[in-house]
């Protein structure tokens, strides 16, 4: 049984779990690495924050892939298949993760494959229970494609070949009137449910707890050693995590928001943290911020940009 699968995203769920429009998202900003071989599980158990042995054909997990200092190189969604594991991650970090994971293969019977051209990742919103879709966070179903429930609002990722995806997408559009959604909207919904995807500008900058990976059930504190484990465990047991993840909003503007931009206290001009990731949709720029929590929830925040753009927290992890 997976550790701590409590839904910590209830504070920012949609008022109605099925309130999202029925949409198909051909682009999600995510790519896929397949890890195969007899030692695939052993390799991943020694590198990722989640407990690989807890995964099954019906349960995936989010995880962090850390460096030796406990800083997250990339967040991953780990899905177990019949003969291998799928690592779903931001497209911007695929080459980096492949290169760094291959350093740990050595003589192990494990192979890493970039499956970008073979396996496609489809985003779906509004896939109601009539499709027999999984309902629990990170649960896996087959309808008939591999389907993973994302936290919070009623959204799923579907994995399949190009032909399988095209056939299923055609069915959704013709029979159930699903519309097409944009990448910006999908990323906006990811941020709204505090899924901590980020690009290379934020790689190796934060420990997993700062990204809320523990709140999403993606850190095992009992499975044993993995790269960065000492720092992650020490931060947990000694209560030394001084930053946390927040969902924030600011008006959409032509200048946009830069990932990694500093966030300041507008009164003291003190740096309070940074923008992890952001997406603009429907006139609103929504962002995930990694902010100091030493003196309670931060207020009166602005971005350290040319416009000193005000940014307001709307929810925290």
From TrEMBL:
<protein>
    <submittedName>
        <fullName>Folate-binding protein</fullName>
    </submittedName>
</protein>
<dbReference type="InterPro" id="IPR006222">
    <property type="entry name" value="GCVT_N"/>
</dbReference>
<dbReference type="Pfam" id="PF01571">
    <property type="entry name" value="GCV_T"/>
</dbReference>
<feature type="domain" description="GCVT N-terminal">
    <location>
        <begin position="14"/>
        <end position="126"/>
    </location>
</feature>
<dbReference type="InterPro" id="IPR045179">
    <property type="entry name" value="YgfZ/GcvT"/>
</dbReference>
<dbReference type="InterPro" id="IPR017703">
    <property type="entry name" value="YgfZ/GCV_T_CS"/>
</dbReference>
């Amino acid at each position: 049984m997976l550790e701590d699968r409590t839904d910590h995203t209830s504070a920012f769920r949609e008022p109605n779990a099925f309130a999202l429009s029925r949409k198909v998202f051909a682009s999600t900003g995510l790519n896929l690495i397949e890890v195969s071989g007899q030692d695939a599980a052993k390799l991943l158990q020694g590198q990722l924050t989640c407990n690989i042995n807890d995964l099954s054909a019906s349960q995936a997990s989010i995880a962090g892939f850390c460096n030796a200092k406990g800083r997250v190189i990339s967040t991953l969604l780990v899905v177990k298949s019949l003969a291998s594991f799928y690592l779903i991650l931001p497209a911007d970090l695929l080459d980096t993760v492949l290169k760094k994971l291959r350093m740990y293969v050595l003589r192990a019977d494990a192979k890493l494959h970039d499956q970008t051209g073979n396996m496609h990742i489809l985003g779906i919103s509004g896939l109601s229970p009539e499709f027999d879709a999984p309902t629990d966070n990170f649960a896996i179903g087959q309808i008939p494609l591999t389907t993973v429930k994302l936290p919070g609002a009623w959204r799923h990722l579907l994995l399949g070949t190009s032909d399988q995806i095209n056939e299923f997408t055609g069915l959704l559009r013709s029979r159930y009137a699903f519309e097409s959604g944009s990448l910006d909207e999908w990323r906006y919904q990811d941020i709204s449910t505090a899924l901590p995807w980020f690009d290379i500008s934020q790689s190796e900058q934060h420990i997993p707890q700062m990204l809320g990976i523990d709140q999403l059930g993606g850190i095992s504190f009992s499975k044993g050693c993995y790269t960065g484990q000492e720092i992650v465990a020490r931060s947990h047991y000694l209560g030394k995590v001084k930053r946390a993840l927040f969902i924030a909003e600011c008006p959409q503007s032509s200048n946009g928001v830069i990932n990694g931009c500093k966030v300041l206290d507008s009164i003291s001009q003190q740096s309070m943290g940074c923008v992890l990731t952001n997406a603009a949709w429907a006139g609103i720029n929504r962002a995930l911020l990694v902010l100091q929590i030493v003196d309670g929830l931060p207020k009166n925040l602005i971005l350290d940009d040319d416009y000193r753009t005000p940014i307001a927290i709307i929810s925290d992890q």
